Amino acid sequence: MKYARVVALLAGFAFYLFSIILQGIIPAVLPESETSVVSRTIVTPMSFLETVPAVNEGRSKSAARGRVIYRREGCWYCHSQYVRPVAREIDRWGPISEAGEYAGDQPHLLGTRRIGPDLTREGGLKGDDWHVAHFYSPRAVVRGSIMPRYSWLIDDEALREGKTGRELLTRDGSALLDYMQSLGTGRGRWYDEFLRRQPLSFDPANRVDFKKGRNDYLRYCSGCHGNKGNGQGSVAPVMGTKPRDFTRGIYKYKSTPKGQPPTDADLYRALTLGLRGSGMPAWYELEVETRRNLVAYLKTLAPDTFNKEPAEVYDTATLAKSDPGPSRKLIDQGKALYGKSGCVGCHGASGKGDGPAAAALVDIWGNPVRPANLTSGVFKSGPAVVHVMRTITNGVDGTPMPQFLGQLNDRERWALAYYVWTLSAEDKEKLRAGIDPATADKFGLWYRLVCAWQGKDPLAANVPQEFR
Amino acid sequence: MAEEIPIAKDHEIIDYRLVRTWATWGLIWLALFPTLGFLLSFSFMLPDLQGEIPYTQFGRTRPVHVNGVIWGAFSTLFLGLSYYIVPRLTGVRVAFEKIGWLNLWLWNLAVGTGMISFILGFNTGVEVAEFPLPVAIMFEAVFILATVQFLVTISRRIEKKIYVSLWYLIAAFIWTSMSWALGHFIIPNFIPGISNAAFHGLYLHYTVGLWVTPAGYVLIYYFLPPAAQNALYSHKLSLIGFWSLAFFYPLVGTHHYIFSPIVDFTETIAIVSSMALIIPVWTVTYNFLGTMKGKWHLFQNDHTVRFLIVGALFYLVGCFQGSVEALRTVQTSTHFTDFVIGHSHLTIAGVFVLWALGGLYYIWPKISMSPVNDSIARWSFWLITIGVAIHSTLLASVGILQGSLWASLVPFIDTVTTLRPWWWARTIFGGMIDLGLALSAYNFLQMWRNRPKGEEAHLLPENLPREIA
What we know:
heterodimer; A: two-stranded antiparallel sheet; 2 strands; 41% helix; globular; B: mainly alpha; disordered C terminus
């Protein structure tokens, strides 16, 4: 009799409660678990990248809804959401996960299995076009992918009407996309730091293998760019910004003035870093050899363009030599130039890409183009101010963006570049001030107990209805 | 001097019809849910096979397989066998017998509706606690009712000594009544942030460590000695096994989220406890093998002994794998990979389901009063044994390969395509396991159909004498 009671009370209750307290409650009430503060990488008003503490951004209503769909469709069975400090995960996925990034998440979606890639830092890595095409036909975008086709996230009506990009999605699909694009954005410009670490040195003397290049092209690129490289891949019709037609040999982000062929290093850079915010992902995971072969193969697609060497090259290395370094005066000068040099017409006075001429712009392929939103902090040209400088110097081929080489001198162009780069700057003091020590631990168990005691609703601010 | 205790005959205290109906449902789930896993595994090689409707996608069907095997197949069989074991070990009829029937229908209704709700997209997002609220409440009701039933029964027992199976049974039911509520009611609603993951890790291992494992122990501790016709090898070892399990197993959960932002000391405690689990695992396994002393010839022909002992050997391997997996160094390259999947299949399919089948091979001839079809039983045994052995070894290797590929920074998609042939092999050997399980289920159902008609009348509860003792 007695022994049954010992079993029930000691093993059944006491040991169980001990484990809940030791492994559940104590860790949960520690400030480091309760925090909603993350380390956020920002561009300072003086153009430097800096990582500072900041409160994790909440999700938009739509993204919160998308999270429910992510949960409903069981995405989390195949996609994990945490980056570990081991197994070179920081080189593949980005910075290590922090507790504050999960503030308010209920349930957590860390996942226990990684059949597909980790999605912790997915937000902004690829453009909406890419995601829409990928939901629509995963294997066309990523050859060999085993993700199911989520074609019911696509609105058939819109597809028939020939709409593209985000407009193709149903309400659920659009919410899911918002959730995808919100993942990891609390960490700010981590990707600029991450992409700057990618080695870009390109040794032209190295031998290349065209045949391998072609195979790898068919494997990694043809879904969007087409087997012939003409930009007519099978998912091209659903993409808003069409994949590049390589056969015309017109490249947008390059170190040579308009009308001249890009350098090999340009192609290599675009391949490695991707064109952030567009459908072109970063391919830094590919071996250097593979990327080199791909570049060589791409050049064979437009022999007319590449049969001559570029006459002038204003690449980042050359331009960096004239870098005056950031200063208040320089940035102010850039601001003045931004008004004077015609930038406002397309990019708008605020830099949001909403200038008076913006709506009517068409590129050389006949597709409407939107001027870049310079305040978003997403630059297709690259992850540093020198890349902006390169774009301003050489212009963007195939689009109305002119080259300012010759129009403005080195210093003026640098001033403009610094100004544009710092349009997305954040004030670290302001971020720091946003951390209210009383509410930084807003979502913790302890805070909730206090709220329950005081009769307040602890989640009133940030957590969507369905989790309450 | 001590009073003479009248020893009850089996049929006077056991409701055979209840046990049989529970077990029949368990066998139906056993034929169904593991096989679903086999079908699902094809989507790794032929993803378009899932069609273009939401209901067949991996994300919706995976929880059906996982929960179906844990709660549907294994737990249903265990609950059914409990209604056999408890009266046998206490010498009295189960208290509030009618509740056993209520539990039966509530439980199977919950399993059925739960699986349908997954398909329809109702999912709490907490792995292994995915059931939506109404379904979760049904399960919780069964756990609480059964706990009360069994505790009251044990308090009324006429057997003074309380056998080790009952320790585990008492603890398992109390633990799970609490942890089910934790997983389904508390974690999805009241614990936000990274602590949600910490509690979920705990819950995950409460499920396997405080329900599946002790439940399996109940079965093997109960069925092995009579099947081997030997006394239990060592009472002292079973004491060490029980108390070390009860102390260490509740602490290990956080090892599911090592290297996550969960506080480091919690992870370290989880790792240390995971390694300490070697104590219960090795002592109980030694106890099982010791119980076979002098009776190893039974291993040749006795189905119960075979299933139980092979299960015990898989248990030794699987749990060592589990302990080692918790180490930070090992986890670096095995976490998130198929290594974990291999471990879970080795332990659930290769150990606990095998033990439940072993128990059934012991009692089913009594229940159905017809003999086992030896040839089907043998096929089933070898298919499961070979299937599990290769399947798990294979997935463990695949996991290490996968982890190394990730760490080598090749494009992620190449780590997927490289594994394709391995996944084909996984499907084949997984299919072997499922076929073996289904064969045993078929064997039992067929035995019941072949029962000598009219002779089972004495087993029906209305013909049993009322409460004895």
